[in-house]
Design the sequence.
């Protein structure tokens, strides 16, 4: 923009008014946009739905999302982490540490800062230009004073500003998901590490039983009561148990390292202790027939996909809405079962506008928009399936763990008690008793695996309600919890 | 005690009420009311009050079936049915038997008696009775399919014959007999001689019992019928020591013990303190010239032996099968021998895993008899019984012959433990102990064959 004052003859007339107007307009538009002091993390927390609490272990607004930008920040976090690591590390503390300390998450926080800065930048008017020119044409002197601002930019400033806001929101949504995923990962890694530690302890017990068998067998052979075959068999159990213990130790080590990575720990921080055992199963597991609908209403990836279509539409100047299409095409659902009362119907719909494109001149715009639409639909379909899978996983792992705890383990204990009675009556020998002790330990280990699977599935479901989980395929058959029947003679 | 149970399920009462309109008196009269035994104790001898007189037997932990005289015919009624038999205090078995117990009641008749036996089948499958050793019409021999159709469940068959030969006999099914005998269906039969018999001496006390064996998983109650030799319950009249009553006799009594074997292995039956002769088999009395003194009579499978002796030594005399495993109750045949195995260290290690574990068998197994260890339900301890000098540590086919002065003629009550005269009991030597002179042991090199005594691991009877 350029204003030119032409000074004709004796009078010089200066027209300053429009420039001042534009300037004040530009300043007015950009006046409220400043870089957030927290690097935009507050907005990240605001993006989290209430149910993020399940993953974070506390309301999202209280979660320790801090972007460490200074040495003091880092110092404070290191101190806090040290405090948290001073006691046996439970799941909640593990999540706190991950949120505070995970460097990948810190990198994501920086993303928000970058996005926020860009937004502020976009909402600011480019510095106005001033020009001064003097020219003479005969006796006419022309003094040209110019103040120029980028008018196009000024005109599109509201749009640019909105795009900046949307970009920031997208980033915040992504970072919120990242934070939730880091928290979920910390939970799962914690469960795995505690379980692996407990399993190793059980394998040590098996080893102990096998050791006792082997020692006794050796002494039996020494006094002539066992032959080499019988002794070799008992030694075989011992050798196998040693193998099992070595494997359990390796698994424990790996699980611990995964936890260390999930929490971003290093150096002396890695010397933490874990609780003795996993928390027991919840007493009950409430039915959640609306889990899919709830998830669709609050999942951040779905929210981001919808926002992306809106943003695309807006940036393409598409306003003429002709009709809505349901990208999910889901009607009412009636879940009936022969065992449970029919659950009430509910609907999941994700409606996005489809535009009447008019002419072909905006073919690219159409393609871009349709792409966004399909991406949204893809995200929604994936999200629904993930929630269903996570929900079924959580329920079945619960049922399996409960069955092991309430049926299989007590049954094995009963078998052990009965076998001890038979040992008392000299109906079976001490080697049968020790073999039985091994079987009992295996049944407890099977319960432990199932309990671990449940807590992992619970974390997956909690995450699936708010973001995309990384669901692992169900583990195949563990070693049988019960030995083949009839191993003990009468 | 015997009890009378109305077998026709209230038909008697109905008859009384409706005046025999539907059940004829003849039909009612045709079937003697069955007598059912509820207790596993040795019942006093049943003194005959009808028919020819005889000197009755005492069935060890059993009883004699009362009869009815019907126009000169002795009528008995046996009911084949499932029973719960107490084999020892604290151990009840689910068996099949007759008239409330296994074995069934002893049937006592006199040589020449016409006998009619009604057999009612209350089992789930057909049965029959073979009168082992009797001379009888071929159609009365009781082999299902060969001599008669089987008795279907719920039906009553009648057997009738003359007890021609005096002696010691038994009865058992001959229909699915492997199962039915493994389940305990059997009974004793004594045909007393009519008057004096040159080969059959009159005795003061006449005992009888059958040898039988079961395989009952410790903690369960029903025998495993497919077991052939590895039974874990070796019993006399489906009782095991300390559940077997003593044989109580008066000093100087002439005693007869009749034993029949319905297990699947032989049993050397051994009497302490006396010599006996085998005065008869199920083939009949033995010729006197063929008898010689014995202290052990091996009774083969399906055989019966009649042991006669004079109880001329006072005291409590062991009487048992001489297969030592048969004087044990339920035991584990695959339990490793722990003798001489040092448990130090290991026992503590095992206790960490199995808190109630206790090392056993290191010195032998006598510990078993002194420790009161919890056992599976419904299981008799392998070695049990307390005597005047401590644990007897026996089971299975073991009892005591108690010879006492001053008992009444038909008094079979347990007189308690024998009071040994002073100075007649083995006791500890407390004098000086000379140094033991032992030969230096041969130098045993590793790899030398070293023979050590141990019981065979696999236990065949």
Sequence:
């Amino acid at each position: 923009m350029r204003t030119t004052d032409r000074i004709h003859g004796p009078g010089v007339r200066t027209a300053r008014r429009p420039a001042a107007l534009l300037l004040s307009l530009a300043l007015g538009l950009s006046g409220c946009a400043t870089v957030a002091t927290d690097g935009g993390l507050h907005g990240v927390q605001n993006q989290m739905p209430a149910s993020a609490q399940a993953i974070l272990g506390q309301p999202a607004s209280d979660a320790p999302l801090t972007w460490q930008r200074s040495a003091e920040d880092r110092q404070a976090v290191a101190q806090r982490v040290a405090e948290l690591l001073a006691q046996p590390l439970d799941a909640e503390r593990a999540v706190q540490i991950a949120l505070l300390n995970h460097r990948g998450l810190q990198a994501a926080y920086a993303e928000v800062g970058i996005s926020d800065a860009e937004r502020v930048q976009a909402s600011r008017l480019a510095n106005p230009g001033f020009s001064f020119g003097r020219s003479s044409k005969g006796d006419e002197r022309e003094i040209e004073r110019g103040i120029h601002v980028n008018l196009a930019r000024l005109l599109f400033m509201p749009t640019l500003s909105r795009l900046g806001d949307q970009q920031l929101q997208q980033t915040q949504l992504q970072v919120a998901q990242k934070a939730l995923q880091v928290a979920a990962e910390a939970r799962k890694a914690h469960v795995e590490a505690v379980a692996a530690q407990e399993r190793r302890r059980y394998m040590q017990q098996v080893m102990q039983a096998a050791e006792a068998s082997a020692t006794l067998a050796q002494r039996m052979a020494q006094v002539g009561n066992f032959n080499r075959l019988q002794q070799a068999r008992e030694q075989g159990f011992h050798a196998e148990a040693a193998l099992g213990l070595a494997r359990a130790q390796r698994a424990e080590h790996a699980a611990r390292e995964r936890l260390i990575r999930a929490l971003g720990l290093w150096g002396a921080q890695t010397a933490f202790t874990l609780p003795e055992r996993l928390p027991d199963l919840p007493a009950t597991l409430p039915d959640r027939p609306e889990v899919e609908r709830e998830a669709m209403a609050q999942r951040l990836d779905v929210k981001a996909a919808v926002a992306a279509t809106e943003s695309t539409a807006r940036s393409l100047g598409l306003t003429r809405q002709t009709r809505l299409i349901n990208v999910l095409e889901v009607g009412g659902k009636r879940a009936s079962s022969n065992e449970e009362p029919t659950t009430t119907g509910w609907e999941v719909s994700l409606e996005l506008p489809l535009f009447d494109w008019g002419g072909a001149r905006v073919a690219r715009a159409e393609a871009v928009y349709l792409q966004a639409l399909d991406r949204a639909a893809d995200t929604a379909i994936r999200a629904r399936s993930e929630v269903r899978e996570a929900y079924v996983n959580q329920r079945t792992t619960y049922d399996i763990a409960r069955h092991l705890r309430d049926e299989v383990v007590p049954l094995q204990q009963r078998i052990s008690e009965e076998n001890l009675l038979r040992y008392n009556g000299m109906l079976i020998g001490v080697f049968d008793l020790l073999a039985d002790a091994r079987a009992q330990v295996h049944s407890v280990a099977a319960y432990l695996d199932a309990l671990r699977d449940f807590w992992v599935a619970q974390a997956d479901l909690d995450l699936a309600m708010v973001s995309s989980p990384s669901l692992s395929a169900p583990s195949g058959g563990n070693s049988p919890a019960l030995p083949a029947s009839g191993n003990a003679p009468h | 005690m015997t009890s009378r149970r109305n077998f026709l399920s209230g038909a008697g009462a109905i008859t009384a009420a409706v005046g025999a309109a539907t059940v004829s008196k003849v039909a009612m009269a045709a079937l003697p009311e069955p007598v059912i035994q509820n207790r596993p104790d040795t019942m006093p001898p049943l003194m005959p009050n009808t028919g020819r007189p005889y000197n009755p037997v005492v069935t060890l932990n059993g009883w004699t079936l009362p009869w009815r005289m019907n126009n000169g015919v002795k009528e008995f009624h046996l009911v084949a049915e499932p029973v719960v038999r107490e084999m020892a205090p604290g151990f009840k078995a689910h068996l099949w038997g007759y008239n409330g117990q296994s074995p069934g009641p002893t049937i006592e008749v006199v040589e020449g008696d016409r006998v009619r036996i009604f057999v009612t089948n209350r089992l789930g499958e057909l049965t029959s009775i073979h009168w082992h050793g009797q001379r009888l019409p071929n159609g009365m021999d009781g082999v299902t399919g060969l001599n008669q159709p089987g008795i279907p469940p719920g039906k009553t068959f009648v057997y009738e014959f003359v007890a021609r030969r005096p002696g010691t006999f038994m009865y058992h099914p001959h229909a699915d007999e492997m199962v039915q005998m493994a389940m305990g269906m059997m009974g004793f039969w004594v045909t007393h001689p009519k008057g004096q018999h040159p080969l059959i001496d009159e005795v003061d006390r006449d005992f009888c019992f059958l040898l039988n064996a079961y395989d009952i998983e410790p903690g369960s109650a029903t025998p495993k019928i497919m077991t052939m030799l590895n039974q874990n319950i070796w019993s006399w009249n489906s009782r095991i020591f300390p559940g077997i009553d003593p044989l109580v006799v008066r000093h100087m009594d002439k005693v007869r013990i009749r034993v029949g074997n319905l297990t699947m292995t032989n049993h050397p039956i051994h009497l302490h303190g006396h010599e006996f002769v085998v005065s008869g088999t199920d083939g009949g009395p033995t010729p006197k010239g063929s008898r010689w003194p014995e202290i052990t009579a091996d009774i083969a499978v399906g055989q019966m032996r009649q042991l006669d002796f004079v109880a001329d030594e006072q005291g409590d005399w062991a009487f048992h099968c001489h297969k030592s495993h048969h004087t044990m109750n339920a035991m584990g045949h695959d339990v490793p021998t722990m003798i001489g195995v040092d448990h130090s260290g290991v026992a503590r290690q095992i206790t960490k895993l199995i808190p109630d574990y206790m090392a056993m068998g290191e010195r032998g197994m006598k510990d078993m008899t002194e420790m009161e260890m919890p056992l599976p339900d419904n299981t008799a301890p392998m070695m049990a019984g307390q005597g005047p000098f401590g644990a007897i540590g026996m089971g299975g086919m073991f009892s005591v012959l108690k010879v006492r002065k001053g008992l009444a003629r038909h008094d079979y009550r347990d007189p308690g433990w024998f009071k040994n005269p002073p100075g007649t009991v083995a006791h500890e030597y407390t004098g000086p102990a000379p140094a033991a002179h032992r030969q230096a042991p041969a130098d045993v090199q590793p790899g030398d064959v070293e023979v050590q005594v141990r019981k065979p691991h696999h236990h065949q009877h």
User: Anything to note?
Assistant: Chain B touches chain A through 43 residues (CB under 8 Å).
